[in-house]
Amino acid sequence: MILSIWRYCHFSLAAAASLFLILASLTGAILTFEPITNSLKNYSINNLNEISLKETLSVLDKKFREVYEIQITTEGFVSAKVLTFSNKTEELYLNPINGETLEKVKPKSKFFSFFTNLHRSLFFKKIGRVFVGLISFILSLITLTGLMLLIQRQGGVLKIFKRIKENDFSEKYHVVFSRIFVVPVFLIAISGAYLTFDRFVIGDLQNSMSIKEEILSDNKYLKFDLISLDKVKKVIYPFSKSESDFYAIELNDRSVMVNQYNNRIYSQSFYPFSYFTKEWFYNLHTGKGNLFLSIILLVSSISILFFIFTGFKISIKSTLKSLNIKYLSSEKDSKYIILVGSEKGNTFEFAKFLSAQIQSFGERVIIKPLNSYKIYNQAETFIILTSTYGEGDPPSNANNFVPLFKKFNQHNKIKYSIIGFGSLKYPKFCAFAVNVDSMIKPLDNFDEIVPLMKINRRSVLEFNKWIKMWNNSAITSVKFKPMEIET
User: Fold this and answer.
1) Per the confidence metrics, is the pTM higher than 0.90?
2) Is 384:416 a contact under the CB 8 Å cutoff?
3) Which of 123, 264, 329, 378 can bridge 259 by disulfide, Cβ–Cβ 3.0-4.6 Å?
4) pLDDT (average), residues 261-279
5) Residue 487 banded pLDDT, cuts 50, 70, 90
6) pLDDT band at 92 (very low <50, low <70, confident <90, very high)
7) Pick the residue with more confidence: 476 or 414?
C-alpha cells in the first residue's frame, strides 16, 4: 500500500508539473553557462586572503582621482567604481595589489537576462516567482518519492548501488542516473523553493522588523591592515570629507560604519541567520563562483529532462500494454478468470495469448489485474500470471491482492494454476508468485492444475513447458497451442 502511494505521488506530481519542469530545466541549464564562463575569466584573484584592505585602499587612492565603491564578488573578482584622472566615471575589474585595470565591467548579457527572468518568474513578476517556487518544491517531492521507490526497488538503502538488471534502455538508465543525480537534483529543487520562501516570507518578515544597529559608545577600531579581502564584500566610500560621513563596509558576518579619519567603528549590524542561509542556497542554486558546482548543475539540469522523458515513456508503455486487452466476456458469466500482476505491462501479453485460445474453445474468459480480485459467481478456473517487483514485493497492480483474496471466498470450487515471471539475476526470483502459491495451495476449494511455474526473463520456451504440462492435465478441457518464438 505504501509503495503504491509513493508510486502514485511520484507519477502524478511529475505529470502535473512536467511542462514547467522542462522549461525550468532548459533555462537552468542555459544559465549555468554564465557562472562557468565567469569562472574561466583570467581576472579572478586567487590570494585574496593575503591582501589587506588597507593595502588595496591605499593603492586605489593613488591610482584614481576618486573611488566610490569597491566590491569583491563570489568569483574572486575585485571591481571598483572610480573617477579616473581624465574625469571619466568607470566600473572596472582591478588587480587589488597594484590597481592595474584588468577589464571594464560589462552589463549583464541581454541573453542571460532574458533567461534569468524566464527562469525566475516566467515574466509574470511576483505571481510568476511564487509559481516557480511552487514548481521547485514539487520537484523536491518528486525527487523524494523517486528515492523511496528506488530504495524499495533495490531492496534497501544499502543496496541502492547494486547492479541494475533491466534490459530496456529507458527503464535501466532511469534507475542508473537517479542514483547519481538524486542528491544534486533535490538540492537544486529545495534551494529554488527556499529562495522563493525567503523572498516572500522571511524577507517580508525582516522588513517588518527593524534590524538592530548597534551604536558603539566605547572606542573600537577596524584595523584595515588586519582585514583581508576575502573577508570583505563591499566598501562604500564616504560621500564627502565631513566627519559625519563614514566608510560603509560589508564584511562576511556584519556591516560596519567606520570613521574615515581614525577608523573608529561608529556602528555595526550583524547579519541574521537567514542572511547566511539565503546566501548559501543562492550560491548552491546558481553555482556562482564555483566552476565544479556549475558543471554539476548543468549536468543535473539535463538529467531532469532525461528523467521526464524516460519516466513518461515507461508509464505510457506500461499503460498501453495493460489497456490493450479485449474484454469479450463479462465478470458475471466468465468461467475462466485470468488474473495478472504486472509492473510494466509485459505479463499482459501472455494473458492475451491465453485468453484468445480459451475463446476459440467457446469458453468465456476475462482478464483482470490482481487488485481487481472479487467473487466471480461463474468462475471455474483461475490462471494467475504475476511478476515480482524489486526484492520480492508485489507489482503495482497486485499490491492489494493478498488482503482481497482473504476477504473474498469464492462460492465455487476453483481449479487454478500460477505462473511467476522474473529474473534469475534477482535473489528472490518470482518471490511474489511463490507467496501467492503458498497462500492458495492449502485451501480446500482450490485444486491445482499445474504446479507453480517460474519463468526467467519472459522465456517463451519455459512458457511453452507450462502449456505442455497444462495440456497433459486431465482436469481441463481447454488445450493451448505453443506460443511462437520471435526470431
Assistant:
1) no
2) yes
3) 264
4) 91
5) low
6) very high
7) 414
Cβ-proximal residues to 230 (8 Å cutoff; 6+ apart), any chain: 48, 49, 72
Three-point CA angle 44, 252, 64, nearest 5°: 50
Cell representation of residue 298:
548543468
Q: Which of 19-28, 163-172, 188-197, 208-217 has the lowest mean pLDDT?
A: 208-217
More confident residue, 174 or 204: 174
The β-bridge partners of 415 are 381, 447
Alpha-carbon distances of 326 from 37, 274, 351, 384, 483, rounded to whole Å: 58, 60, 11, 18, 19
Report yes or no: 457 and 482 within 8 Å, Cβ to Cβ.
Answer: no
Type of residue found at 242: S
CA 135 to mean position of chain CA atoms: 12
Encode 417-428: b = buried (16+ Cβ within 10 Å), e = exposed. Answer: bbbbbbbeeeee
391: exposed, middle or buried (C-beta count within 10 Å: 0-12, 13-18, 19+)?
middle
d(CA 117, CA 124): 9
Q: What are phi and psi of 386, to 5 degrees?
A: -145, 145
The residues, any chain, with a CB within 8 Å of residue 405's CB and separated by 6 or more, are 373, 439, 440
DSSP string computed for 399-422: TTHHHHHHH---SS-EEEEEEEEE
Measured CA distances, 45 to 80, 97, 168, 249, 300 (Å) = 14, 10, 49, 20, 29
* Set of cell numbers at residue 181: 543525480
Which of 457, 399, 385 lies closest to 423 in space, CA to CA?
457
Q: Report the C-alpha dihedral over residues 283, 286, 288, 291, rounded to 10 degrees.
A: 110
- The crossing angle, in degrees rounded to 10, of helices 291-323 and 273-286 is 70
Determine the residue type at 399.
Answer: N
Q: What is the pLDDT of residues 350-390, one digit of tens each?
A: 999 999 999 999 899 999 999 999 999 999 999 999 999 87
Residues 6+ apart with CB under 8 A from 261: 243
The three cell numbers locating residue 146:
523517486
Asked if 104 contacts 92 with a C-beta cutoff of 8 angstroms, the reply is: yes
